[in-house]
Structure formats: structure tokens, C-alpha cells
Amino acid sequence: MAELPGDLSAALDEALSRADSGTLSRSVQKLMHQYRDGFDPAERMVLGSATDVAAYAAYRMPATYAAVVAALERSAELMPGFSPRTHVDVGAGTGAAVWAAAEVWPSIEETTVLEQAPEAIAFGRRLAERSDSPAVRDARWRRTVISGPVRKPAADLVTMTYVLGELPPGVRADAVRSLAADSEMVVLVEPGTPAGYERVVEARDLLVELGLSVVAPCPHDRACPIPRGEDWCHFAERLNRTALHRRIKVGTLGFEDEKFSYVAAARGDRSRAAGRVVRRPVQRKGMVSLRVCTEADGLLDATVSKRQGEVYRAARKTDWGDPWPPAQGPN
Ligand SMILES: C[S@@+](CC[C@H](N)C(=O)[O-])C[C@H]1O[C@@H](n2cnc3c(N)ncnc32)[C@H](O)[C@@H]1O
């Protein structure tokens, strides 16, 4: 179960302490409707008011934070020598990816945050002041409206999380290309829906064309082997819902599974996972079934039985999204 770090949780509690839960609840309904039915980029900003920003921070930020940490951790595992000093987050909202990157890479010293919505910048800054990380506290927040290539400083790490779907389709390719300029690693995260996955695959192919190679989740740079329209590559993080979340999003469980699609691509050679588990493993008596995207053979369904001893024990501990076979362990 993913947990918010103590400083972020305290900062959110403090920032939301005076918000009226009925007002937030109405804003949540509106935002959910926009995210579900599609956002018309010709309309005004999604996070256009202080109430909408507070509602986003209360019901979405913990989940986007958890998904981004998961995507970054899986990338960091495969890039043990990567210790970014500079980070740019594009379309930061209230700063989920700023906090997530500082958590995964404490080496980050300088953070630049680009966002279009002034109310989101104000809220994000207020949260960031409460961070234990100097990189988060001292981040430079800049108002930027993306309408083509993103004007950003050079950076070791560039993130853009849950943003592509809000950009007009004609702007996405230029925006993605510009993220790769003057950066070592680019990480994109989108909702784990068929449409979110399609946007990630398009962006991934552009990054590969530009000479970057995929760090995670794919174990190769070739075309995605998942047949279009039949399935989509996505992962999930389970997190506890806060008491406020349960109040403003009526009728929900005490936890949620945040589904996400992602790609991390970087310059230079590095080791890659031989394969990655792309569905929730199914455990039956004495048997574990894994769907694995492999470097050599595309998608494979592997069944591991108790008779395989150490391999079976490793399979039982393997999660959706983990490398397979594990980096250290049975082959
Ligand atoms: C769904 S929120 C994601 C926020 C944050 N990255 C996260 O993961 O929680 C999308 C963000 O992208 C920003 N955004 C959308 N279109 C943009 C544009 N054209 N230029 C700059 N920011 C944009 C929105 O204002 C919003 O803050």
C-alpha cells in the first residue's frame, strides 16, 4: 500500500483544513466529469479556480503522487548510476511529481516547475514550503502555457505527468520532442486507460526516434507488441484514502487503485529488465501465472509451478509492474 510521506500529508492537511467539504465535493464531481468524459482543450483551464485546485489536491494529488513515485522507482532501479541534480516538471498542477522526484532521487538540488494555472501554482508553492526537501522547498515555479515546444531549462530529469491528455492533440508531439532536448531522462505518466496508453505509446515512439531509449516499463525500443484495441499496457498502485477524500468523494472505499501508463526514456546505454510483468499475477494453488513483455519474444504467458522451487518463490513475490525474471535471483 503506497503512503504519502509525512511532510506532504501534513502540508495537504494544513492547506485543506479550512476548505468546506460540501464545496470541495461539488468541485470533485465537476472534475471527475471532465476527466471521465474528456476535457475540451478549447475551454478554459481545468484548474481555473482556488476551489477546483483544492479539490484536485484533495482527491487526485495523493493518487498521482503514488503513480509517479512507482514509475520513477521502477526507472531508478534500472539506472543505478543516474543521480539527477536538476529537474523540470511540466504541467505540475499542485506539484505531485516535484515531491515524487525528490523522494526517489534525493540528489536533486534544483527544480523548475512549469504550470499554466495561477491558482495551482499558488497552492503548489504553499505545499512545497512545508517539504523536508530543499529541492522542493526552493523550487522555482513559473507560469507557462504550452502551445507548442516547451521552453524549459536544460535538466537531468524532465517529468510531465497526467498532462498530455489536456494538451490539444496537435501540440502533443512538439511538446514531447522539446522535453527530450537538453535532458538525460524524460518520464511521462498518463491515466491507465486505453486513451492514456495510446498517448504514452505515441510519445514513447517519438522519444525513441529522437535517439533516447526506453528505460521502463518496456524491455526494448521496438514497437509495443500489445495488439491495438485488444489490451493496453498499464499498472496500478493501491493507496489509502484520507478521511477528507472519503468525505468529498461520496460512497468510496477506504483505498483506491490508481491505474497509470508510463514511459521513462534516457540517453546512453544501460542495463534493461529482460522482461516486465504487465498484468496482475494470478496465484493458484502451487502455480503462478505471469503475463510478461519480453525483450526477445514479445508478450509471453509464463506459468511457474511449485516444482520450480526458487523460481516459484520469486514468482510469488513478484508484483504487477515488476521486472521478470527478478534482477537478482533465478533465471
Ligand atoms: C491532471 S493535472 C496534472 C497535475 C500534476 N502533473 C499531477 O500529476 O498531479 C494537469 C495539469 O496540466 C496543466 N496544463 C494543462 N494544459 C496545459 C498547458 N497548455 N500549459 C501548461 N500547463 C497545462 C493543468 O493546468 C494541470 O495543472
SS-derived structural category: alpha/beta
User: What small-molecule ligands were found?
Assistant: S-adenosylmethionine
Tell how many strands the DSSP assignment holds: 12
Q: Considering the protein shown, what is the CATH homologous superfamily of the largest domain?
A: Vaccinia Virus protein VP39
Helical residue percent?
A: 25-40%
User: Mind describing the biggest β-sheet?
Assistant: 8 strands, mixed
* Rounded Rg: 20 Å
Q: What is the number of helices?
A: 11
CATH topology (fold) name of the largest domain = Rossmann fold
The sequence of SSEs as H and E is HHHHEHEHHEEHEHEEHEEEEEH
Sheet-strand content, in percent, reads 15-25%
Q: In CATH, what is the class of the largest domain?
A: Alpha Beta
Distance between the ends: 28 Å
Outline type: globular
Gross CATH architecture of the largest domain: 3-Layer(aba) Sandwich
Enumerate the spans where pLDDT stays under 50 for 5 or more consecutive residues: none
